[in-house]
């Protein structure tokens, strides 16, 4: 009752959200970085490496405007799969690598990373890792789409083992609630706040129909309407009706190829549009909509609908990306530096 009364008033909601934000700001991730992971790691071994990466990516982004969100997702899926070690890029003749897992079936951007790697190999052979290229590419993708510019820690080395089961076990599900999502992030030593903030990577990019169609047809979480015939299609009642109508028109049952923007407000711009969409019940994925179901994450969402919060969001996102970039890194003499990112492991 107390929480319900607070959310009836927009001004009092902002007060609650601000107080909640203070709680979130006071809780930082416990992720620590290896002593060998540092800023400007390549200053002496490959001067200008980051500028070279950025220059090559800018040309690729100009040729394909869908590439920035793809590279941001590529980095996320690599880090969560088995650590930020570029093992997602490895191939398997037997279909047993991370990239062969269902959650990675629509991941793309591999060739862009390979193009950047080729430029680096020409300048500094066997110096810059594929894992670091992924981290830099994600950073540049965010900034290219009008998001924050932030420094990236480097010094990662590449892994040489890629297992399909790692992706299946560690990648968060598109239909997870806040409790489930928090568990997946905690398994990577990331905080609750990291989860809420990194979810907003969905402010750019698209998702294929199978990722959200369960919310449109025979939604298992909905209380069955007795006026409908048994087995009749029912939608997630939390979806905005007009938005749901548009989604069903675009994604008929069985449609696996079509895509929809993750951010219904400003799908090509890295901004607060994601949180605006979530607050308006126009979140595409169930995992994004779930942020409103928890008082803490819901308060952060509501605060981020205020245009003046963009600097807070950008600062938070930069910190959480750095935290994510530390997951399971290989440094020093661990792993390897590959000449080619996409090699076969079998």
Describe the structure.
Helix content is 44%, strand content 2%. The chain has 346 residues and is mainly alpha-helical. Strands 1-2 form a two-stranded antiparallel ribbon. The longest helix is centred in the first third of the chain and has 17 residues, at 10-26. It is globular.
What distance lies between the first and last C-alpha atoms, to the nearest angstrom? 59 Å
SSE run: HHHHHHHHHEHEHHHH
Class per helix and strand makeup:
mainly alpha
Biggest sheet details:
2 strands, antiparallel
Rg calc: 21 Å
Helix content: 40-55%
What is the general shape?
globular
- Tell me what portion of residues adopts beta-strand conformation: under 5%
> Poorly predicted ranges (pLDDT <50, ≥5 residues)?
1-19, 28-34, 228-232
- Number of E strands: 2
Spatial order of strands in the largest sheet: 1-2
Tally of DSSP helical segments = 14
Average pLDDT works out at: 90
What is the compact description of this entry?
Its EC number is 1.11.1.7. The chain has 346 residues and is mostly helical.
